[in-house]
Amino acid sequence: MSDEQEHAALLKALQKAVLRERKDVMALSESPRARALREFESTNCPVEGCGAAKARGQSFCSRCYFSLPKEMRDSIYKRFGSGYEEAHEDARDFLEQERRAKS
Asked: How many whole angstroms separate alpha carbon 99 and alpha carbon 47?
């Protein structure tokens, strides 16, 4: 690998790290309701390490959604302000733990 290629690779890795850090800071400063709404409106799966395309108004991409136990899938149909935020956070945490366990 040439010095120029190595420099470009290091720069790209640094940019990714900075973006990850910004995302972490944003997540810490957001309320659970604001985060759930942002992720609900997003077109990317919110599960760390996934990021697959999803439709707005869906909680997760289809692969992540069908990886959830049935009771968790059912619980994310609660309304905002009536348990959705907690159910979504629990489901996202479950999926992220599953991903870490597999890697």
From this structure: 9
